């Protein structure tokens, strides 16, 4: 049995996945809405998020997300967030980057440039691999169908700008809904998809 690759993304109704966690998370291109997720605290969605974190045995991150996580989670192993910090600190971290960054967070490894080969190797090494955030890297995985499940935590807000899960010019892909959608009291919805080849067309008449 090979390991599963899950992509976890927080997104708005118009598909923006940039900087949900805070104003300084990713202000690139003048993005003014950093921290847009914060007003939507939701125990139902939060429980679903935590259940995924508890199961994962490897973490894959793009360079920007890695820098954010590495600067935060090693110092947050107590209090309400402690279980997340301890988990992230304990599991292997793999980083997708075009450069050669210094990876000082213990347990971190730089992925090679052949992403398909790297994903295949990760599947042999781990059971439950999660890509969290890292929207630029997620584009590569989605286009190449190099994943098993795309989890979109979709929030009832429209921003009109920012990095999107499916930006203009994305590779055409079809998705298949897996599992029952779950809605929380904030209006956030947990949606889970598997790759389903390329889109087809027809005639509705």
From TrEMBL:
Pfam families: RibD_C. It comes from the Bacteria. InterPro entries: DHFR-like_dom_sf (IPR024072), RibDG_C (IPR002734), Riboflavin_Biosynth_HTPR (IPR050765). Residues 5-178 form the Bacterial bifunctional deaminase-reductase C-terminal domain. PANTHER family: BIFUNCTIONAL DEAMINASE-REDUCTASE DOMAIN PROTEIN, DIHYDROFOLATE REDUCTASE FAMILY PROTEIN (AFU_ORTHOLOGUE AFUA_8G06820). This is Dihydrofolate reductase family protein.
């Amino acid at each position: 049995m090979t390991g599963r690759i899950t992509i976890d993304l927080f997104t708005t109704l118009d598909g923006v996945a940039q900087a949900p966690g805070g104003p300084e998370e990713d202000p690139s291109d003048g993005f003014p809405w950093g921290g847009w997720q914060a007003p939507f605290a939701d125990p139902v969605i939060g429980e679903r998020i935590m259940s995924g974190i508890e199961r994962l045995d490897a973490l894959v991150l793009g360079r920007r997300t890695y820098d954010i996580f590495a600067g935060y989670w090693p110092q947050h192993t107590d209090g309400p967030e402690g279980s997340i910090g301890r988990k992230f600190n304990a599991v292997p971290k793999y980083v997708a980057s075009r450069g050669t960054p210094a990876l000082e967070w213990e347990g971190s490894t730089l992925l090679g440039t052949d992403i398909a080969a790297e994903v295949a190797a990760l599947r042999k090494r781990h059971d439950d691999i999660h890509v969290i955030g890292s929207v630029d890297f997620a584009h590569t995985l989605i286009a190449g169908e190099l994943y098993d499940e795309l989890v979109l935590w979709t929030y009832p807000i429209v921003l009109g700008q920012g990095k999107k899960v499916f930006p203009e010019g994305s590779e055409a892909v079809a998705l298949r809904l897996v599992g029952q959608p779950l809605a929380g009291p904030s209006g956030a919805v947990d949606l889970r998809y598997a790759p389903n080849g390329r889109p087809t067309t027809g005639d509705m008449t």
